[in-house]
Amino acid sequence: MYLIRRGNYGQEPMLRGMTGGQINLTIDGMKMFGACTDKMDPVSIYIEPQNLKSIQATLGSDGSKLGATVGGSVDMQLAQATLSSKPVSGRAGFGYQSAWNGFNSHANANYAQQKSAYYVSLNYRKADDYRAGGGAVIPYSQYEKINLSANGKWAVGQDTLQASALLDDGWNIGFPALPMDVGSAKARIYSLAFQRFRLHERIQTLNTKIYFNSVFHAMDDSHRENVVMHMDMPGTSTTAGGFVEGNFHPSGKHTISFRTDYFHNQVLAEMTMYPEGGSSMYMQTWPASGRSDVGFYLNDVYKITRGTQLFINGRVDWANTTLQEGFGMDQLQVFYPNVQSGYQQITSAFNVKLKQLIKSNWIAEVHAGYGERLPTLSESFGFYLFNRYDGYDYIGQPDLVPEKNWSTDLTLSYFTDRVQVTATGFYNYLPDYIFFSHSSRTIGDDTGCAWRKDL
Ligand SMILES: [Cu+2]
Question: 57 pairs with which residues across the strands?
């Protein structure tokens, strides 16, 4: 897993060169989508390292447990309240970094009783402009943010109920490589989960969760010099969903687990331009649009012999993508007269993996899989999205077909009590790869460009 820095501020995971809509980036299994049309806010920026218990990454279509994907899954698992014999525990820390005159402070506390526990954590970070080696100041690299997370856990007989809330507010966040900064970025994440253990002789665990999250992101160019035309660019993204996942007791040589999930995501990003001496202009850079998705995942671990295991999993999703009638749809009709208000698509994934113990300290793994992912709402309906790398504005393509990935991996591991060495080779073939292209469409003085299906 690689991390891409977003400004001086956040980090975005990348798996084998795949990122953004190609991977599932989830928080405790919850779907969440950023609200920036310019990719400033992968949802990982709303989670502080202090909030985390662990990060789980699964590569390629094998990561389809958490959603339809071609690149894999990264699940950020949050620190939870823990039932313990110590009634109160906690820690606090403070850091100062001279290179950007930065403060980084955090505190967390856990309060435990016999049948309940509560956890709170608070983070505050502030940084001025970064000073590079040699003392050169990198302008617009400052930021400030506060992050508050709280959760509770209650024992109900053998089962547990969990409620969790996370609030993240950032402001005055500079993006040195982009023509704009972020005035305000707010995320709210709420969830309620119920875990049942041994509820039936055949069912080991059954987890149910419902959740809601929202992101507000407002870009700001008011601190920049020589701005040709000031713009207001607020965006919102809200997601609600739920899932049920469970593990069955091994029967014979098989251990089966499943997950079924649902989410609905709704976005809107607006842009108001204020030309000097002219009247303001309004457009929706992400037209009011949304997507509902229902998915089902099944996994079987088959212990053939003591040293040989076979893993088989598959996933099917049904998605309904909607474009609201009105301003945003009217805009797209200029380029796509036949744009529809609804698109239904089905995606699937299938994986087989064989794990073989060779001698006492060598393991070989062979994986082959197929996965699909839907185009993001941005790739489908985005409208005049500026790309700083090439200076073009891009327009989505509403009728994109799902991107596919045929992949295979071979992994060889050698391990002793102290050392493990792993070598992996992999191959991905991605038909219907979604990429941007420059078409010859011209409107007025602007050149329109479109995301398009590309082999
Ligand atoms: Cu942005």
Answer: 74
